[in-house]
Amino acid sequence: MQLTGKQKRFLRSKAHHLNPIFQVGKDGVNENMVKQVAEALEKRELIKVSILQNCLEEKEDVAEALAEGTDAYVVQIIGNTIVLYKESTENKEITLP
After folding, report:
1. Could you tell me which residue ranges the CRM domain spans (predicted)?
2. Dihedral of CA 13/91/47/65: which sign?
3. What is the secondary structure of 35-58 as a DSSP string?
4. pLDDT by residue (tens digit) across 15-47?
5. Fewer CB atoms inside 10 A, N or C side of the chain?
6. Please, what is the end-to-end C-alpha distance for the chain in angstroms?
7. What separation in angstroms does the CA of 94 have from each of 11, 52, 91?
8. Do the strands 73-78 and 22-24 form a parallel or antiparallel pair, or are they unpaired?
9. Are strands 46-51 and 73-78 parallel, antiparallel or unpaired?
10. In which order are the strands placed within the sheet that holds 73-78?
11. C-alpha to C-alpha distances, 66 to 26, 31, 34, 43, nearest whole angstrom
12. What is the per-residue pLDDT across 42-92, written as a single tens digit (0 to 9) for each?
């Protein structure tokens, strides 16, 4: 399943007020980070990840690696910030239009 434009717009509006809770640095994306992001997505459903300037990977590659590793959707990549969404099984708060 892919997110529709309407759903992405809705999630972007929800994510606007969030602060990034993870930072990707020069080490890039590793197994531990993927596990932590997955746990955060289960609790919050919608998170922001910021990419530091010393990150050697492209931001699209970082977003793809996190999305694949956590089974989440990339809602938006804006500047050096990635917005990820994954429907929670236990803490469902966001209802998509």
Report:
1. 1-97
2. negative
3. HHHHHHHHHHSEEEEEE-TT--S-
4. 999 999 999 998 889 999 999 999 999 999 999
5. N
6. 14
7. 9, 28, 9
8. unpaired
9. unpaired
10. 22-24, 46-51, 81-85, 73-78
11. 15, 10, 6, 16
12. 999 999 999 999 989 999 999 999 999 999 999 999 999 999 999 887 777
pTM: 0.90
Cα Rg of the chain (Å, integer): 13
Question: Does pLDDT of 95 surpass 80?
Answer: no
Cα 14–chain centre separation: 13
Domains, in order of start, for the chain: 5-85 (3.30.110.60)
Q: Look-up: residue for tokens 């050096």?
A: 80
By the 10 Å C-beta count (0-12 exposed, 13-18 middle, 19+ buried), 14 is classed as middle
